[in-house]
Specification:
120 residues, mainly alpha, 73% helix, globular
Length: 120
Amino acid sequence: MSDSQPFLPLGLGDLEGLQHVITLYLRHCKTQGKISSEREQHQRMLRELHTRIERARLSGADPVCLPLTLAEWQGLKKALNGCAWVVRTHVPHSAERDDLLTVLERLKQEVAQIISASLN
């Protein structure tokens, strides 16, 4: 595994979108009952990532290169998967819903590529 932290150049809109994904995922997790220590640690890491994204967004730089650890990339991928599941199961079928799912899928693929490259 590489020592460098991989990053994905993100625009201000992308950062805001990631914040929404993390927020939705964390809200969904609250509805899932008892939390294991591993899950609690995962949620804490995502809250910290949310804060880092907010600081990067408020910096006004565009694009932003936010370096993430492998664990953060994996957590983000899990949040993207969870967010996509929530949208699929709770949002009525519409063009906007389909557009959102397309964007989430594209981002999931980009994150998966970064994770794969980090493991090689």
